Amino acid sequence: MTSLMNKQWIKAATPKGAIQASDFALRSSPIPQVDAGQFLVQTHYLSVAPVMRRYLIDGAGIEAPLKIGDVMLGRGVGRIVESKSKAWPVGTFVQGKLGWQEYSLQSEGQTPLMYPVRQTTAPLSTALGVLGMTGYTAYCALKDIANPKEGEIALVSGAMGGVGSIAVQVARLMGCTVIGVAGTDEKCNTLTNELGCAAAINYKTDNLTEVLVRHAPKGIDVFFDNVGGEILDHALGNLAQYARIVSCGRISQYLNESPYSLENWGQIGAKRAKMQGFFVYDYEPLFAEAETVMAQWIAEGALHYREDILEGIEQMPHALMRLYEGKNIGKQIVKVYD
Amino acid sequence: MTSLMNKQWIKAATPKGAIQASDFALRSSPIPQVDAGQFLVQTHYLSVAPVMRRYLIDGAGIEAPLKIGDVMLGRGVGRIVESKSKAWPVGTFVQGKLGWQEYSLQSEGQTPLMYPVRQTTAPLSTALGVLGMTGYTAYCALKDIANPKEGEIALVSGAMGGVGSIAVQVARLMGCTVIGVAGTDEKCNTLTNELGCAAAINYKTDNLTEVLVRHAPKGIDVFFDNVGGEILDHALGNLAQYARIVSCGRISQYLNESPYSLENWGQIGAKRAKMQGFFVYDYEPLFAEAETVMAQWIAEGALHYREDILEGIEQMPHALMRLYEGKNIGKQIVKVYD
């Protein structure tokens, strides 16, 4: 170990609107002592995701809400540097809930969401992205909820985000013609030129319905929604019969005080469609398949991933703010230790 | 045949708001001649359903829109009185798309939605209700989309309507604690006193969310929605995790010029719930099971049905208006011939 202290980001305030640097504080604590059945993980990379803002507010319905002074929650990948657990020996690379800190103490009995990193061909950071929960989200949601058939049309919102940029490719590799929705022309160009989208929509300048009617005159069969709100409304207004909507994220709403008023909800019934919420940890039995299939696609050059890596744990609040500013291209990651 | 003429209701106008008698006109036409492969059905009972208003406007997405002068569409049950088809002999009782008329000419090659009535213990009219598409709708939607587990809580809107009054009982017989939503205290009393609901909500006088929080503090697991709009919004705001919502009908919306603005749509994602549109003819493979199981429940006295039967084909427009006025109790039927 190169340091005897453990840098940690703690909650300093509950955000009211947009995330601010002052919602967090950086502190140094002693590295905790390892007792029987415990092991210490040194963080190599930390994941950054939109849902983290809600960890500060209400726990997002999946975590206990954070109090002022609590270490910020989040997933990371790291290496076991000290262990008093036979199941988790020193040297093992793991991914799991490490928190925004350089070192985390884990207990073998309390680690249902800690996974060893098995693959060795791709960089370690992919365990936070394409070969981790981000990629598993895209794969499992498409496989289980959307279950696309060859030749169907899939729409993906937030298409250049962490999950979205994998979802567009997985949908294509599952046989779909894919339309991506993003917020800049640069992102739209990447979608059509590099990620195999048949068309891309800039939701800030294009009329969504107009583009959908042009590219999907019979309606969309699959909608992988990371955004919600107005984009969802347009998608609902242009559904094909028996469409499947994966409700994966609602980034358009996380900053809103009052929710978007959805008008085309009746189309779910009228089109005999299905809209279903998705939570990746419900799909653990599919993870091994997702890893195998996607690792193969990567090896064949069929599946590309992008990581947007900032350096240094000090960057964490800034990295989270970038997501809400739409600045990241691909999975937002912070490198903590090499 | 007792008459040489065929009374028919035709479309006279496209309704703008509520259905009016003047949207229809009654005419007498000669009974059509039966050619090879055809058969003539004498209507005994006609079904009345909210969706029929939309047949006049846009076909409801399932029929070609009616033109002025076309015979009004609708299902009925009757007897084959003349036949030049070996597959459909004289004397067979059938249910299917007879239209609002005393006699209908059917062709053996064009009758995928014509079914012989096989059961003989219950009255013929049940083929339009509990032992026909109305009952199959309740059974198939609950079985396939909701798939309730013992002890779960089910909410049914439009609970004293044709589909709803069967859905509350089928949900109970599948193991649910059932809460019904209706629009009068009289209907609410019937729900709790006769149909086995644990609670009933009068949506015109009760605060839905208040009642739901009291009777389903952990949220509702199944929502069988015949109404949409504000009731759907309350239900979405009170979902249990992994809730299933059957989007069966939207009677609150059929008269609205502009759709209800739904606020709690994000709960579908947040609660990992599923909302799915239902169309009964997609479930034909389940019809035989539905008929067998529900006939058995009726024989055991476990499943009750109510029919609201008006006499005479002249009553058809009035019968349809009654649905929108909430006056019917149970399946609305018109007896055309005894």
CATH-defined topology of the largest domain in chain A: Quinone Oxidoreductase, Chain A, domain 1
* Percentage beta strand of chain A: 25-35%
Distance between the termini of chain A: 12 Å
Overall tally of domains of chain A: 2
Number of strands of chain A: 15
Helicity of chain A, in percent?
25-40%
CATH architecture of the largest domain in chain A: Alpha-Beta Complex
Low-confidence stretches of chain A: none
**What quaternary form is this?**
homodimer
Report the average pLDDT across residues of chain A: 93
Question: What class would the helix/strand composition of chain A place it in?
Answer: alpha/beta
Cα Rg of chain A = 20 Å
Q: Return the CATH class of the largest domain in chain A.
A: Alpha Beta
Largest interface: A-B, 29 and 31 residues
Largest sheet of chain A: 7 strands, mixed
